[in-house]
UniProtKB/TrEMBL annotation:
Gene3D superfamilies (alphabetical): 3.30.70.20, NADH Oxidase
Organism encoding this protein: Desulfatibacillum aliphaticivorans
Signal peptide coordinates: none
Domain 4Fe-4S ferredoxin-type per the UniProt entry, residue ranges: 17-46, 50-79
A GO MF term: oxidoreductase activity
Full protein name: Nitroreductase
Cell membrane is among the record's keywords: no
Source taxon at top rank: Bacteria
């Protein structure tokens, strides 16, 4: 049983979603290529297609490509499922992803049918998407402060308010921060992925294997840092760190680092995340786009960089937000996994 539990822990045998392109609709604008966080798409003959980037770096079904496509030429079919081993998840879902159905209607009712009856807050929640396509236009500081103010009034355990925010709106500083984060992330890929996969200039052998020492170390790392060593997460880290042209902030004109006082009451990570979500929704209401960029946590590996940024004890970096004006239409409702709800009427 123990062997079965940890089988395929490093690179599980998974079923991935499929990128389907309507070639008649596609105009080759390349927005889907830029919007894919895992770099799974490329332009070929003025049309988009999967770039076959190694077997284990496949679609995470974020559907940003579909949401960003102005021609509605993209469909994502299927879902990420693992049938056995440590990462087994197929038994946790009931059916495929579905579109928003806030009013719980059956039959042929669509989100568009229900939208007129929803509150403005509900509409923002269902339509807001992570933005990875930004204009170069600078965001006024008073607007960034307005977004942060929304975070300040988030609820927190014991009203502890453990957060601290570092705002950066200088593109040179953001670019330097990007490069330093990628240098740290590259070390993570070197530790957790087959060598042929960690350099974009190398085509990469799809059958490449982990070294024996990696096979020995990864189970321990997975226990300690489960979320960061999940196979799709490692693919995302590698996509960023192995490409010299990749910008983890997607060219955004501003970045907000979210920090938390480690001594705070309860879960400071959760509280800071709630503050960040307040900020995301406020930004959206102001016509701004945002994207959560947790790759910024790599700052924590660089003591000199932390000092320059003013990250001092007792604060630690939790995540970050890229922020700017969206380049074209991105907001669109997309399908999500069906909710796991267990009603309890008595004990």
């Amino acid at each position: 049983m123990l062997l079965e539990k940890y089988r395929h822990m490093s690179l599980p045998q998974a079923r991935y979603a499929e990128f389907v392109l309507d070639r008649d609709k596609c105009n080759g604008c390349g927005r889907c290529v830029k919007a894919c966080p895992i770099q799974l798409l490329e332009l070929y003959g003025k049309k988009s297609r999967p770039n076959q980037r190694y077997d284990h770096f496949r679609c995470i079904t974020c559907q940003n490509c579909a949401a960003s496509c102005p021609q509605n030429a993209i469909t994502i079919k299927g879902d990420y499922r693992v049938d056995k081993g440590f990462w087994k998840n197929a038994h946790l879902f009931r059916g495929p992803k579905t579109m928003p159905n806030p009013l719980g209607r059956n039959g042929q009712s669509t989100y568009a049918d229900q939208e007129p009856e929803l509150t403005e807050t509900e509409k923002v929640i269902y339509q807001r998407r992570s933005v990875r396509l930004y204009k170069k236009k600078k965001v006024p500081r008073d607007m960034i402060e307005r977004v942060i103010e929304a975070g300040r009034f988030a609820p927190s355990a014991g009203n502890n308010q453990p957060w601290k925010f570092i705002a950066i709106d200088n593109r040179d500083v953001i670019s330097a921060l990007n490069e330093k984060c990628k240098a740290s992330l590259y070390k993570v890929s070197a530790l957790t992925l087959p060598k042929p996969w960690i350099n974009k200039k190398t085509p990469g052998d799809k059958e490449a294997k982990l070294a024996l020492w990696q096979e020995a170390v990864l189970p321990l790392l997975t226990k300690i840092k489960t979320g960061d060593t999940e196979p799709r997460a490692r693919g995302g880290i590698n996509a960023a760190s192995s490409d010299p042209n990749y910008d983890i902030y997607f060219g955004a004109p501003a970045v907000i680092l979210l920090l938390a006082d480690k001594r705070g009451i309860g879960s400071v990570e959760l509280d800071t995340g709630i503050a960040g979500q307040n900020m995301v929704l406020a930004a959206h209401s102001l016509g701004l786009g945002t994207c959560w960029v947790s790759l910024s946590k790599a700052i924590g590996f660089d003591k000199a960089l932390k000092k320059k940024l003013g990250i001092e004890e007792p604060f630690k970096i939790i995540s970050s937000l890229s922020i700017g004006y969206p380049q074209g239409q991105v907001d669109n409702p997309v399908a999500r996994e069906q909710p796991r709800i267990h009603w309890v009427d008595s004990l």
